[in-house]
Fold this protein.
Amino acid sequence: MHSLLTRSSSVIVLLLGLAALWGMLALFPVQDDPPYDYLAIGNSITRHPECEYWWDDIGMAASEESRDYFHIVTAYLQTRHDTVNAQAVNLVEWEVAAGKAREKTYRLIDPYLTEELDLITVQLSENAASSRMLSRDCERLIRHIQEKCPQARVLLIDDFWSDSKHRAKLRAAESLGIPFADLSLIRGSPACQWSLGDTVYGGDGQPHVIENPDVARHPNDLGMAYIAGQVIRLIQSLP
């Protein structure tokens, strides 16, 4: 219990620091530069379509659109660039496939992989059956992305739930030499997930009660803010 409280306290301190940083960034004028193109590839944490148990086409389980990690990162980029073109794509098909079948799913994202892209974040693994071959398959996917988008900087986002998948993805990032958004501090933390009965807002602007346990396991606003903060920290460190 003590370690859980310590972890939750650390998350809160880090997010307060992120809030302070956000306030400082607002003091700087937007740069007059060419359009900046950002593509987020992920699973339901990045974008989940509206359905009977989820009420907006946004990252699960942010309480509203502006609070999922993709929209927070996009808002940050808008403080640094005059025009930002941002898009989120769900590629859960890659996660649930296995072996060579994963490579067949590349066609689903190829239409989005243009030479104009400046930044690509990859957030995939939570729906994979296991961490077996995950490191190799992450490398292959990201190399495919890099071949299609040679000018883009690619960032790999950690697994939200699994330590073994964390290790597999970290190995892939280190092998590729790309930045890795580590989520170890919040992985498994109840403070960064919803509980059944909590309320979020749908695209209709109305409150909706979370009744599905799988939805509740997703990052809440605190978890989303932490993921966004880790991505923003990496963006700031890019040359």
Summary: The longest strand covers residues 36-42. The chain has one domain: 2-237. Confidence is low (pLDDT under 50) at residues 1-5. Residues 2-237 form a domain with the Rossmann fold fold (CATH 3.40.50.1110).
